[in-house]
Design a protein that fits this description.
By secondary structure, this protein is mainly beta. Helix content is 12%, strand content 39%. It is built from eight helices and 26 strands. The strands form eight sheets. A four-stranded antiparallel beta sheet has the order 9-8-11-12, with no helix packed on it. Strands 16-15-18-19 form a four-stranded antiparallel beta sheet, with no helix packed on it. A four-stranded antiparallel beta sheet has the order 23-22-25-26, with no helix packed on it. A hairpin with a 3-residue loop joins β20 and β21. The radius of gyration is 45 Å and the shape is elongated. 36% of the residues are buried. This is Twin-arginine translocation signal domain-containing protein. It comes from Nakamurella flavida. InterPro entries: TAT_signal, TAT_signal_bac_arc.
């Protein structure tokens, strides 16, 4: 009879100790895992007493007769999950398992934390169902890598699943594989339930199909599981449950949210949809929840999006309008932008400025910024900007509204310069559009030399009528002047936001 390396090692050690090994090949566990544990826990006891490796770990009164750990569901209230005070320590698989429809069957270890007194080596539930609790002193180590080996205690129990652990426990277990095909037939009465559920609704939506229903794996009743969606026999992805379904929770007496409500993209037209529940417990399959035929609607049309970032006053009655606009239905294409002032359209222009911030935020290409300078009359104005829909189906979007005060340089006229004999009488008018009802100053230069600075204040109803303003904006002033030819220049002094004091007239007079 062929012996294993572990048996030969133990036999050699017992011969050295003057003992004949009396554990049968059946009792030896058929492998090194438990033997290694026995040697680690009580090496001298194994060598000097006529007992199996299992008895060395569990005690002489143990009745279990193989070295594999108990199924968690037999000690955890029927739940195929790690009990309290344990963690997922690793996994192995058995290939070609009939339990999983010919696919691999996965066993997931639940290890105790080292030194935790809650777990003692014993037969499961006191019934000796040929599995043992907290006896095996090893750890495969592909899961819960944050828990060091030095902090790991014995294997409390094992879960069973037909779903790969690195998918079922994503982020907890790795895909590093270990195989023990001798465990392919191991089972327990509490293992083996496939998920249940229903595909309740299949509804056309723009650009796709909406699916609703529920799915539950009773082996892990409090766990929200995944569903797999197929459209025309092509997988479209896994989606988690998580939508509240109080009716399901009440009917199965489980906590958690087991409903689903998802939209899967699909081209317009008729499609065959199938939904499967993904097993996380001991069941053999991922059962079909339902199939339906549904017609996906055409893609939704969407109005442009964007923002009016700013409306800034500039010189000489100008304002600068800036922002961005994108049509989601044509995200790489420049679109028109319309500007309204006080409810009246005043400009229509395309986007085209670089806005890398917009492109990064929306995940689009193209040039979607705009910046345009407009001229507005003095006074307060409401500026509204609209993004124009690319094809007109979804409508235009208001990007923003701002109120801005238009600025302007003073206006006026030097109407006359008359010699009065030893003096010149200057007459005219001036006002500042930024403060149209206020008197302003005018400055008089004679032959390029400033000689006077005085306010307006004379009645000029013609000016008020022409510009639609109030106030007193005329001026008449007499300045003494020596005989000879002289040139008089008059400036209007700015009081608003605009820059500069403009010349409102220049006349030459021969003084007697």
């Amino acid at each position: 009879m062929t012996t294993t390396l572990s048996e030969r090692v133990v036999s050699r050690l017992t011969r050295r100790a003057g003992r004949r090994p009396q554990a049968s090949r059946r009792g030896f566990l058929g492998g090194a895992a438990l033997t290694g544990a026995a040697l680690a826990v009580n090496p001298w006891g194994y060598l000097v007493r006529p007992a199996s490796a299992y008895d060395t770990v569990c005690g002489l009164d143990a009745g279990c007769n193989d070295g594999y750990s108990v199924f968690c569901c037999t000690i955890n209230g029927g739940a195929n999950s790690c009990p309290p005070n344990s963690f997922i320590g690793g996994w192995w698989k058995a290939d070609n398992s009939s339990f999983c429809g010919g696919s691999a069957r996965y066993y997931i270890d639940c290890n105790a934390y080292k030194g935790d007194g809650a777990w003692q080596c014993r037969c499961a539930s006191g019934t000796c169902d040929e599995r043992r609790v907290a006896c095996n002193q090893f750890r495969y180590g592909q899961c819960s890598l944050e828990v060091p080996q030095s902090a790991s205690g014995p294997v409390v129990c094992r879960m069973v699943s037909c779903t790969p652990p690195w998918q079922q426990y994503a982020g907890v277990c790795t895909a590093s594989s270990a195989t023990d095909n001798r465990t392919a037939t191991h089972s327990a009465p509490c293992n083996g339930q496939d998920p249940v559920g229903a595909l309740d609704g299949v509804t056309p939506v723009p650009g796709g199909i909406r699916l609703s229903g529920w799915a539950l794996d009773q082996d892990q009743g409090g766990t929200e599981i995944q569903i797999a969606v197929y459209v025309d026999d092509g997988g479209r992805g896994w989606f988690p449950t998580g939508v509240p379904r109080s009716d399901v929770a009440a009917a199965y007496r489980v906590p958690g949210n087991h409903g689903f409500d998802v939209v899967v993209p699909a081209d317009p037209g008729q499609h065959r949809v199938a939904v499967y529940a993904i097993n996380v417990g001991g069941g053999a399959t991922n059962p079909l929840l339902g199939t339906r035929t549904a017609t996906a609607g055409p893609p939704a049309v969407r109005s442009p999006i964007g923002n009016l970032d700013g409306v800034t006053p500039g010189p000489d009655g100008t304002v600068r309008v800036t922002g961005w606009a994108v049509d989601p239905d044509a995200p790489a294409t420049a679109i028109p932008v319309a500007v309204y002032r006080n409810g009246q359209g005043v400009a229509w222009f395309p986007t085209g400025g670089d806005r890398p911030d917009v492109n990064a935020a929306l995940g689009v290409g193209g040039r979607h910024g705009f910046a345009v300078t407009l001229t507005v009359p003095p006074g307060d104005h409401e500026i509204a900007v609209f993004g124009i829909d690319d094809d007109g189906r979804a409508g235009n979007s208001l990007l923003g509204v701002r109120t801005v005060r238009g600025t302007g340089s003073p206006r006026g006229s030097l109407d006359s310069a008359v010699d009065t004999g030893g003096a010149v009488r200057l007459a005219g008018w001036a006002y500042d559009p930024d403060r149209p009802d206020d008197a302003i100053q005018v400055a008089v230069y004679r032959d390029d030399t400033g000689i006077a600075w005085f306010p307006t204040g004379g009645e000029r109803p013609d000016v008020n009528s022409a510009f639609g303003i109030g106030g007193r904006h005329g001026f008449v002033v007499t300045v003494p002047t020596a005989p000879g030819r002289h040139t008089f220049t008059v400036f209007a002094i700015n009081v608003g936001a605009a820059a500069g004091n403009p010349v409102i007239g220049s006349l030459t007079v021969d003084v007697r």
